[in-house]
Design brief:
Number of helices: 14
Number of strands: 15
């Protein structure tokens, strides 16, 4: 800690050093609950806040709803009292450090929606006290922490870096990853002032193994967008190449694997039916919106996002093309989508390309669109519209079931699926994930980017 630290900074630093502090986590979703559990399992009293009463009710009973977390760890944290779930925002005043892990969606026009951040910041302002540290973790555009959150907290006698402390530290969560989790994934921290950064690094370091300080919240906000946009543009590149390879008769999967043998200057990315999840689809638009505020257009980044968003349409056309080869109309065709989650082995449906494919097929007149996903028991097509309809996952995959469908499309490559059975029992399989790469008999397999 720097020599000229405030009295409140000294007190908070001592609480962090001695581990005699209370941590608050606002938003107990895929980011917030694992973070809260990470502190609680290390013996630090943690209060978890959420407006969703169903989530809080489950947690109060020691029940877990995040697949990547160990059920017994969550139960033990609640039973021991180190994790206290609540909807009562007045208890924010009990916390020494508060992490904001709230959603950052976009609007129908693909503009940033930071209303959840602002609502959480207003709750902080209502229950603030001197000596607290606030850390925003929600992915957002540069300037959010300083220009939107800080003004809601600041007062003449409640100054950032003096009476309270504020930083941005972007979440890094990869659902389904068995190696990298909340505790061992390096985290970047940028505070409004140097003392804010130091305190935020110290508090974060109680739960996270490796903390990387940067010079400002704007750097931290921008680096998070870079992380996700890097993936977006590279996925778009291989998605576009996959479509080209389909035309010229070259297998894009073999191309990527061959290129990956280069030990430097190349990182493999693979095509698919589109991108989903909370971040990669949304973040390009957060940055492009901010760029327009500075009279700049992110042409390359926006084009990549458009390529990725067009992939469900390409997959729809692949499926319709295979229906057309059979003596059946679109109206009477039966299509089965294997996988509805946005990625392998997770229960996250947000912005799922498979959901989009299902809706596109229904719009084209395919009256029978079913799906199988052991992680997603039901979905709503055209949610929020008069055409809304609920689909329920098949309970299992059997030879007799698979053979009923004119086209089976692998949209998510869950590891629990018996892919040899899928290949053997299906009339036609459209494989958008290369899940059937080890199947030798391929006469009924149509692979995205295969060129055949």
């Amino acid at each position: 800690m720097s020599a000229r630290r405030s009295r409140w900074a000294q007190q908070l630093a001592e609480r962090i050093r001695s581990r005699r502090l209370t941590v608050g986590v606002v938003g107990l979703g895929y980011v917030g609950l694992p973070l809260a559990v990470e502190y609680a399992r290390k013996g630090i009293r943690t209060i978890g806040f959420d407006t969703n009463t169903e989530k809080i009710s489950l947690l109060v009973r020691g029940m877990n709803y995040i697949r990547d977390l160990d059920d017994s760890v969550v139960a033990d944290c609640v039973a021991s009292g180190t994790l206290v779930p609540t909807t009562d925002t007045s208890r924010l005043s009990d916390c020494d450090v508060v992490f904001l892990c709230v959603p950052t969606p976009f609007t129908a026009n693909k503009d940033p929606d930071i209303s959840f951040i602002l609502a959480a910041a207003r709750d902080l302002a209502e229950h603030k006290r001197a000596g607290q540290l606030y850390v925003l973790k929600s992915t957002t555009f540069p300037g959010t922490t300083r220009k939107h959150v800080q003004p809601l907290l600041e007062e003449p006698r409640f100054r950032c870096g003096k009476e309270y402390f504020l930083a941005f530290s972007p979440e890094r969560v990869d659902p389904g990853n068995k190696v990298w989790h909340t505790g061992n994934t390096p985290i970047v921290v940028g505070g409004i002032t140097p003392q804010c950064t130091e305190l935020a690094c110290a508090a974060t370091g109680l739960a996270i193994e490796h903390v990387v300080p940067v010079s400002s919240p704007e750097v931290a906000e921008m680096e998070k967008l870079l992380e996700n946009i890097f993936r977006s543009v590279n996925i778009a590149l291989v998605n576009e190449l996959a479509q080209l390879c389909d035309r010229i008769g070259i297998n894009i999967w073999e191309v990527v694997e061959a290129a990956a043998t280069k030990p430097f200057g190349f990182m493999p990315f693979y095509p698919g039916p589109g991108i989903g999840g909370h971040c990669i689809l949304i973040d390009p638009y957060y940055l492009s919106w901010m760029a327009r505020e500075y009279d700049f257009t992110t042409n390359f980044i926006e084009l990549a996002a458009e390529v990725n968003e067009a992939m469900p349409y390409y997959v729809r056309d692949m499926i319709i093309g295979q229906i057309a080869r059979q003596p059946v109309s679109l109206r009477t065709a039966r299509v089965l989508l294997l996988g509805m989650a946005f990625k392998r082995d997770v229960d996250d449906l947000r912005h799922s390309p498979a959901l989009k494919v299902a809706e596109l097929l229904r719009r084209e007149g395919v009256s029978r669109v079913d799906y199988y996903d052991p992680y997603i028991p039901s979905v709503v097509l055209f949610e929020g519209t008069p055409q809304a309809e609920t689909l329920h996952s098949l309970r299992g995959l059997r030879r007799a079931v698979l053979s009923r469908y004119h086209v089976v499309c692998i949209t998510t490559d869950h590891s629990c699926v018996d892919y040899p059975l899928v290949a053997a029992a299906s009339r036609v399989v459209v494989d958008t994930r290369n899940a059937l790469r080890n199947i030798r008999q391929r006469s009924n397999i149509v692979l995205l980017g295969d060129g055949r």
